[in-house]
Amino acid sequence: MTLRVTNTLTGETEPFEPRDPDSVLLYYCGLTTSDPPHLGHARGWVHVDVMCRWLEWLGYDVHHVENFTDVNEKIVARVGEDGESEADVARHYVQQVIEDMRSLNLSRAEVYPRVSEHVPEIISLVERLVESGHAYEVDGSVYFDVTSFEDYGELSGQSVEDLESQGQATGEKRNPADFALWKAGGVAPEDIEEHQHPEAAPAEEACETAQTWDSPWGEGRPGWHIECSAMSMTHLDETIDIHVGGQDLVFPHHENEVAQSEAATGERFADYWLHVRLLETKGEKMSSSLGNFFTVSEAVDEFGPDVLRTFLLSTAYTSRATYSEETIGEAQERWDRLQRGYERAVEACDSVDAYATVSHEGLRDAVDEARETFEAAMNDDFNTREATTALLDLTGAVNAYVDDRETYDYAALRRAVETFEEFGRGVLGLGFGDGGEDGDVSLAGDLVELVLQAREDERAAGNYERADELRDELEAMGVEVQDTDEGPTYRLGD
Questions:
Q1: What is the DSSP letter of 267?
Q2: Helix or strand holding residue 309 (H, E)
């Protein structure tokens, strides 16, 4: 089955056909490094991660580039709180982003370019636009003339006539919809007022630390939109296969990327535009500016990476997603079911009761069906919801099979384990079998059993307070304890 993707440019779900049949060039608009990353950012990260993993599973050599915007007025607004200069603040949050990416088990991009290290490429691209008549200079600033690009508005479905002013209102622009490619001077205090934090330095003091560069038009800073075009062309090509970003970036950011890139090169900038819908909470999008966010680091500490990935992948990237106690609780239940199904398959496969001569067509058919369903779902516009459901169905089949017999079909169980690991771990990025060295896990399990036995002894003696303390100590070390009618059970955390 051919991979099909929903292309914002055409508004259609269409077959994916990269320009090179063996490789894929993919650019993802990364974060402006001015705030702690939150679960809304993580939704985009995890879906792009799975897209890349699936493309690799299909046999493509994936070249994934994701930028850090480390030059921005929002960053200047935090000077004095998270660093003594714009560069310091950006560095602080770049480090936070990297740590949060690793905590969510994201595969590394091929490169993470930063705006501050690509100013020469940005200036060169702006020069091309000026020379070709698509941009003009006014008092040291350079603007893109949207009327010079015939297809402006095609991506977002808007017309130039209907557009209001982009960026700061100024009499310098020929058309209100024209946008800045290069901004003269540094950052003015009024540019950061709406982004200022109570703990930050005074606006005038913070603005003095803003970075500027020499250019043919004088000292200044790059505009926001030109950055991604320059970095994408530098590290991939003038035309790429897939450009991904949040739904809120369709206009103006991506629309302007298309215009400036194609005006400069005369070639299509990206063949497929994929947009991840925003994460909502209490009816609003999760956003740093709205203050209704749950940071990635807090969420990982509370729920662990596997529950979070299960939650974020429980809806397809094109579908509405909502964060709440209920939805995260459902993800916890799904991950527990998946993990237990995997563990039971491993235990049965590795038991003395698994035989080479035993054959069970029902389990073999269930494994084949799960694999077929998973592949069909992922090829249907990376439908992670249906792909996860396929693994949950396999979990149900494994549980029913193991519960119902005393001897096992080794080959079928081995195939089930491989499916969990190949698709669940390899594609969805979940922690199936990621328990470290076997000896370490075994020793950890033995120690937990000893503590649980000591806890049971304390409970039998009526020392309930001490028993609770032992349980709390285990949970603080990442051991989840559950009391059942048959006695306590546990699961080692990530």
A1: S
A2: helix 305-312
Please report, to the nearest 10 degrees, the dihedral formed by the alpha carbons of residues 129, 130, 134, 139 taken in order: 130
pLDDT of residue 373 exceeding 70: yes
- The amino acid at 327: T
Asked if 72 and 116 touch (Cβ cutoff 8 Å), the reply is no
**Secondary structure (3-state) at 38:** strand
Residue 453's pLDDT band, with cuts at 50, 70 and 90, is confident
DSSP classification of residue 491: E
* Count of CA atoms in the C-beta half-sphere (13 A) of 293: 20
Residue 252 is given by DSSP the state: I
Residues 32 and 34: their CA atoms lie apart, in Å, by 6
Q: How many CB atoms lie within 10 A of CB 217?
A: 20
Q: In this predicted structure, what is the pLDDT of residue 1?
A: 75
Residue 364's region, left for phi above 0, alpha for psi from -120 to 50, else beta, is alpha
246 sits in which H/E element: strand 240-246
163, 194 contact by CB (below 8 A):
no
> Sheet containing 135-138: which strands, arranged edge to edge?
135-138, 141-144, 179-184, 220-222
The residue among 65, 54, 474 whose CA lies nearest residue 233 is 65
Order of all β-strands in the sheet with 23-28: 61-66, 23-28, 240-246, 270-276
User: How many C-beta atoms surround the C-beta of residue 420 within 10 A?
Assistant: 26
Residue recorded with tokens 């028993």? 467
pTM of the predicted model as reported, rounded to 2 decimal places: 0.85
